[in-house]
Give the backbone structure.
Amino acid sequence: MTELKKRSDCPISCSLDIWGDKWSLLIVRDLMYAKSCTYGDFLKSEEKIATNILASRLKLLEENNMIEKSDHPDSKAKVLYKLTQKGIDLLPIMIEINLWADKYFVLPPAKKAELKEIRKDKDAFIKSATKELKKSSS
């Protein structure tokens, strides 16, 4: 793993050094919803990440054990990216970001409905989703 140069010993600052840029959490988001993705899958997201930025973020996330690569079952030219346990552990943070956004932004009806269900029993949702992500990452 490449040693990150820390700006400080603040836990928030150290965390942001890994996933606090404009793109890394979107990559994690895609992996949480899709369970695994190819490079091309990430390029298809509506945010339109540039290929050089995507390559850089994937490398950073992999070097910091947030994601891992595996062989693609259908193509030797492709690899699959999956979350590691360290990446899966971002799920509660991702939920909280979504809940915060629901409070301050107009979200699509489907997302609002999903968040309404999550609010009913957030801990149970996180436990179930974490179990599902672990199963798909093994």
In short: The helical segments are 11-19, 24-34, 39-43, 51-63, 85-88, 91-104, 109-120, 122-137. The radius of gyration is 16 Å. The chain has one domain: 11-137.
